[in-house]
Amino acid sequence: MRPLVSIVMPSFNQAEFIEASIASVLEQDYPRLELIVADGGSTDATVDVLTRIQAQDGRLRWFSEPDKGPANAINKALARVRGTLIGWLNSDDLYTPGAVGRAVSALTGPENYVMAYGQGIHVDENGKELSRYPTLPPSTPYNRFAQGCYICQPTMFFTRTAHQLLGPLDESIKTAFDFEYWLRAFKAFSGRIGFVDEVQACSRLHDGCITLNMRYWVALEGLQVLHRHLGNAPGHWLLTYFSELLESGGKPPAGETLSEHAHNTLQAALPYLGAAEASNLRQTLKSSPRYSPLQIA
Hints:
alpha/beta; Spore Coat Polysaccharide Biosynthesis Protein SpsA, Chain A; about 20% strand
């Protein structure tokens, strides 16, 4: 008998997208799967959508209750899985047709892989392709993670045993909990992670998504995660954040001037940088005309 695949889906006020995300799971051609939606107490039409779809398809299970953020929601869903293989799809992302079957083939083959991921693409709110995700194969040197994440999160599938060995997602991390999980996994399962060289999922970029809406935390937590797993982190993560901030009009969080925000962000990042890296970063911010509006002293 083919293994049961459990897909977990965190959700909060994503009624605009969640029906398409659910359909991309339930319309897969793989015969044995279940979908568990962990809703964080949505106040839009999400619960109505879930109720209607569950009445039509019993493979969907869901619960709606307050949570402590997306990592907590995912962990609660993972605790409810029945399958031996697991996928994780956000409520605004999409699987491509055949994605689950291809992942199962990778995880049940003779290589004895415990995780497998594939190619991904970015799409906009209307599902139009924006770009390819910069994916690299599992043979990539571990320290390449310092340059950025090369795993498109919704393309990753793993065995329940692997998850039990790794433990839950780190709920203290607001945005980079998936990145931290990959670094943990690649350290624990070197040589046992497979690759599906086809587009497995579409990662949706829109105004409400974490990737675009929480750039500060993405940068700072990326540095924190790299410091935890690789030692000192590279300062280019902060340069990227400051560049994006300036390109978007240079509007800092409420209560801070641009200069104050730049100074406070730099101070928050320093514990994750080596002395030489911190010195080089500060020099770049002070000397480059690109960053002069930040007024780094």
